[in-house]
Amino acid sequence: MINKPVEAGTCKGGIRMKALAGGYARAKDVAHALDLLAQADGLGRVLAGGQSLIAAMNMRLSTGDMLVDISRIADLRGVAVVDGMLRIGALTRHAEVGADPLVAEHAPLLVQAVQHIAHAAIRNRGTIGGSLAHADPAAEFPACVLALGGTIHLQGPQGARQVAAEDFFVDVFETAIEEGEILTAITLPLIEPGERHVLIETARRSGDYALAGLCVVKRQAGHRVSAFSVGPRPLLALEAMACLDKGDLTGAVAALRGEIDPPSDTQATAAYRRHLAGVLLSRAVNDLTGETA
Amino acid sequence: MTEAFRDKIDIALTVNGEAVEARVPAGRHMIDFLRLDLGLTGAHAGCEHGVCGACTIHVDGQAVRGCLMLAAQADGTEVWTLEGLTETGVIRDLQDAFVARNALQCGYCTPGMLASIKELLDQGGVPDRAAIREHLSGNYCRCTGYEAIIDAVESVAKARAGEAV
């Protein structure tokens, strides 16, 4: 995918990987950002932490973007409990999510996720809103928000709207965000007594994308299981959840392996990912119940 | 292009304690800005997509990937590169430990290693070897096999904490 001809850079080294942006503008607030996106004639690209976008630009996978830099909009950053929900601003950085006491109390799944996301220097700049909007099928945060039954808050020229996580992730790098809209926040239900969260994944190197990963949430109403890195988008494993609710772990493992449709690539075959997902589910459930696998 | 979007952006920032003003192309990342425009070749351009860690610098007190931050985004920030960290002497003990323990061979990864390790050591305490490894998981070294680097970090952390090395 990066074998297409690349223009020579300006440096003496000759042919290099260099980003080609169409233009750059720094948004003062959300209204300004929406205005800038509207002016970009469909070429607008929201720049938040930039930890995926700038990599893609360097590899010329994305060129000519009119960058709308929202990273200085203070209103979009921070964590609070608002109207009985945990609200996380889109620009809250991974390292901040991982260290926030409210997140630790109400969404420990996200704290577990942060430990798996890339490396310290990337966690210092990457944002949770950027991760969700980018919708990398191997990313942890999208699967977490899906497992927690979260809501994604968008703002656009027509005003604000909310999308349930179940309806938000459409395909590889594709979400329900419409042209001209910006992801502003995520809300999650507050934790209930006895609720348990486990995120488990296998990667070749600490911080690498998972070969397969699972989020398991246990609530009074039942289990919620989401899988990542095993398909084009994070998947809510409904059949596995139903089996777990009946206490049938063996059935849940079989159901999960049937529900996912993982890709084969240089990292792992589809068969290996399918096997791995089942192993991870057993381990996650044993972790929830305090038994050793 | 509409007037709001610029292909050249004026920035004013502090680099290694000195005020810098520049006009940068929209797509220029921090490492090219530092190396090609300012002549600060301490931080290295490696993979240029955030994997190898050779470009790690400090921005507003935090270690970041220089290749994953645009120079345009650095307006108003305080940036430190290996040159500044060396001149101020804040990582002198770490640099000495790298030499003493042969924690580098070709040296390509070293500036990024030192910038990453500085952030870990600044947190205080004595991290165990697993924690050091985890913190450096985003910095590739293709020469040393890492053991000597872990040794160097551990010895400096212990020395700073007043423990026997």
Low-confidence stretches of chain A: 1-15
How would you state the average pLDDT of chain A, rounded?
Answer: 93
Shape of chain A: globular
Helix amount of chain B, in percent?
A: 25-40%
Strand content of chain A: 15-25%
Head-to-tail CA distance between termini of chain B: 60 Å
Q: What fraction strand of chain B?
A: 15-25%
Given helix and strand content, the structural type of chain B is alpha+beta
Strand order of the largest sheet of chain B: 2-1-5-3-4
Most extensive chain interface and residues per partner: A-B, 41 and 39 residues
CATH class (first level) name of the largest domain in chain A: Alpha Beta
Number of DSSP strand runs of chain B: 5
List the helices and strands and how they pair.
The complex is a heterodimer of chains A (293) and B (165).
Chain A (H helix, E strand, L loop, with lengths): L20 E6 L3 H10 L4 E4 L5 H6 L6 E5 L9 E4 L2 E5 L4 H6 L1 H6 L1 H7 L5 H4 L4 H7 L5 H8 L3 E6 L2 E6 H4 E3 L2 E2 L6 E8 L6 E7 L9 E8 L2 E7 L6 E2 L1 H8 L3 H11 L10 H20 L4
Helix pairs in contact in A: 5-8, 10-11, 11-12
Chain B lengths: L7 E8 L2 E8 L4 H8 L18 E4 L2 E4 L12 E3 L1 H6 L4 H9 L9 H13 L6 H7 L11 H14 L5
Parallel strand pairs in B: 1-5
Antiparallel strand pairs in B: 1-2, 3-4, 3-5
Helix pairs in contact in B: 3-6
